[in-house]
Amino acid sequence: MKALSQLRRSGPLDVRRVDVDGLLIGPQRDRLVDIAFDGRRIWSFWLMRDGEETDAGMLLTWPKPLRPFLDGVADLTLTDPEHGTVLFEETVRFGTSPERIDIVNPAGRPLAIDKSLKLVETFDTRDAAHVEPLLDAIEEVLGALDKVGVRPFLAYGTALGAIRDGGLIGHDSDADLGYVSDHDHPVDVIRESFRIQRALTDMGYRVTRYSAIALKVHVEESDGLDRGLDVFGGFMRDGKLYLMGEIAVPFQESWIYPLGTATLEGREFPVPADKDRFLTATYGPRWRTPDPAYKFTTPASTIELFNGWFRGMRTGRAGWHGYHKRTVDHSRSVSAVAREVAERHPDLATYVDIGCGRGTDVAWFADRGTAAVGLDFQPYAYEPEAERRADDPHVSFQLFNLLELRHVLAVSAWVARMPGPRAVGCVHVVERLGHRGRLNMLRAARMMVAGTSGTLHLQFLSEKGRDSYARRTGARKPLAPEVVLAEVAESGGRVLELVREHVSDDPESSQVCRMTIDWNQPHS
């Protein structure tokens, strides 16, 4: 947290340059700044913390999600958010367009940069008609959590807004809930979290998981919008409160329970009993001073504890989300693996695509009359195809996390009961996995083809060339075939065929490796 003397520093900023690269500002003490385009706040930053010191001054680089919008004209205003003092204002032009810059999503909804430097719909752009459904969703999920046996409350930014301001924080963009378990051992807290997930699922909610004790509960609003509310689990142990994913501090349970209340946008909601101690544990002793550029500075010891206890099952998820978002308009073609499987297994009854992405191979097999199952870590990728194929009896899509053993075993057992012969394809997935994830993939494939003559057909980047193949496929880095061969042997399988080939006629192009693997034949 910054000292009050820094928060209250007044006077204009010496803005020396504004262009598509960022803002160059003359020497200053650290200070909090709001930046607005045509009167609407777009981004907030701390000058020293978020800037880069150069010989010419402090350079504030535009956040990456904002850069595609920087082509046109805008009235740029820099403001002290505590006092509303204007520090700089000027009409600026970026790029060559004569049009006004309009930072909105495809539906025309205003966007701004949040604390994670993502471009989102923040609460200060939403009117009452958009806030009421959120409040309804908060009430609904709090009630559902109460029914499944925990005592939930508003947490993090939602609690801060209710307790400090009586409303949603304008620069925030989501709703956070929490609970403190009656258990005091991480294993028991994890077991309880999965029980909560099963109970919520039985109640009809769609639930996705951040970690072993943090969930997102999805509520469909009246206009069809999918609203996701974050639910952070916590527990008390040896006089400390552990609340996923930032808090590990000395605490007393009586400071949480019995719960108190606070008003959020005119509605009463549960909050921890000692509001000051809870928000001090979350945001520090100066939590009453608004900071639209606030960033958690979680101690390394807390991160290490939470990583060891609860995290690890979402590694790489954000990267795949970014890849699928970046390539949403790219043309898609059926993989060589899918064509090879179809050719070699003309009697195939079920094809399983591990890491199906947008489901192109799944749809291709279904159109040929073969049952096809698409499994992926990132539902964002396959959801459009799943909606299009909702009435197709040949198609199934399923969330599948190779870093979560429960997924590996349960989903693989489900597939193993499907009609045979079965074959499994896995295209450009293993490059992004570690040793544990690759062994889980091999275990899953072995279970899926068990009892049939089916095989696993694997393709991965084995050599990165002077082309864009790695970026186009999301493979990133090559994986040595020798590593995979050793892991196949470790899994009890054997490689029936191994082919390495360039992806184009250019001898300096990338090289892929394809393997056909089975677990059914005796080893010599």
Automatic annotation (TrEMBL):
Signal peptide: none
Top-rank lineage group of the source organism: Bacteria
Name of the featured protein: Class I SAM-dependent methyltransferase
Species of provenance: Nocardioides glacieisoli
